[in-house]
Amino acid sequence: MTATTEYTPETVTPEAENENGTETGAVADTGGAGAAEAASAEALPVLHPHVNAWFELNARDLPWRHPEAGPWGVMVSEFMLQQTPVSRVLPVYEQWMARWPRPADLAAEPSGEAVRAWGRLGYPRRALRLHGAATAITERHGGDVPREHSQLLALPGIGEYTAAAVASFAYGQRYAVLDTNVRRVIARAVSGTEYPPNATTAAERRLARALLPEDVPTAARWAASSMELGALVCTSKNPECGRCPIVAQCAWVRAGKPPHQGPARRTQTYAGTDRQVRGRLLAVLRDAVTPVPQKDLDAVWHEPVQRARALDGLVADGLVEPLEGGVYRLPRT
DNA sequence: CAGCCGTGGGA
DNA sequence: TTCCCAAGGCT
């Protein structure tokens, strides 16, 4: 099947009481320096026609891009995809949506069930936040994922990126969606560097806004297509520039692909950290049907101080509920 | 704002 | 085997 028709943003109100064409994007203008911004925006390459055309032919057929996924499906996928590869999200997403097809379905269950269903996706606090977001949506938004960027941003687990992504992917609005893929594409194609800065900068936000096509549907398509380009072609390690639709305009290629200079990105150690201990503890609790005795948790890590600290942390985060008598379980709240 | 928060697959 | 990293958010 062609990918073309699969990425049609759901339009809850097709007539769209005019979604306010003046929306500028998720990125707040930091104010000032208007002249400098205008000047820098003039020389920008026009990338979206090429990338959007490439997307028509190369977009992956992902379930959250199907119309039936709806805003809730888009939102669930965005939570799961935070720092997690598509291949690992797919099966969990399918089970999740089958079990909780609407936000209210998830909100009706204890948060611990969300943590359990999250499985081994990692960063289980995301499951807690998704449950919290579903609860807020049920209580404050009548059970429908809000379409306003500001209202999305107010939900737990939704930051600048996810708010823009849901607004754009689910509702077809015009927002700069600045994830790690898009940041890399912009860094190379426009800035001529191999990698973007470690932390998102005001300059990047400015660039992303300037690259956003005026036409709303085209802008929504660009948000998805530029992200897909970064995920499939303009990858971090071995970019396939021979397949890139904008190789002719790429500043980094033009400069001879200079290697990244400057401080290396922080390598996150894992072995021996609290995170690893937390992961082991939670794995035991996820797989348990009944409350788990302390001794079963003690078995996962040799060092008692770190073990206790990790468990305390899980309790503090609301991922684990301590009961009387030194037994633990996933939260029932 | 730098550090923390999981996991498993590929190079 | 070791290293890198994959659609961030929160404090």
TrEMBL record:
One of its GO terms (biological process) is base-excision repair. It comes from the Bacteria. It catalyses: Hydrolyzes free adenine bases from 7,8-dihydro-8-oxoguanine:adenine mismatched double-stranded DNA, leaving an apurinic site. The keyword Mitochondrion does not apply. It is an enzyme of class 3 (hydrolase). One of its GO terms (molecular function) is adenine/guanine mispair binding. Keywords: 4Fe-4S, DNA damage, DNA repair, Glycosidase, Hydrolase, Iron, Iron-sulfur, Metal-binding. Its cofactor is [4Fe-4S] cluster. SMART domains: ENDO3c, FES. Residues 80-232 form the HhH-GPD domain. Residues 1-27 are annotated as: Disordered. Its EC number is 3.2.2.31. It holds the Pfam family HhH-GPD. Belongs to the Nth/MutY family. This is Adenine DNA glycosylase. It comes from Streptomyces candidus.
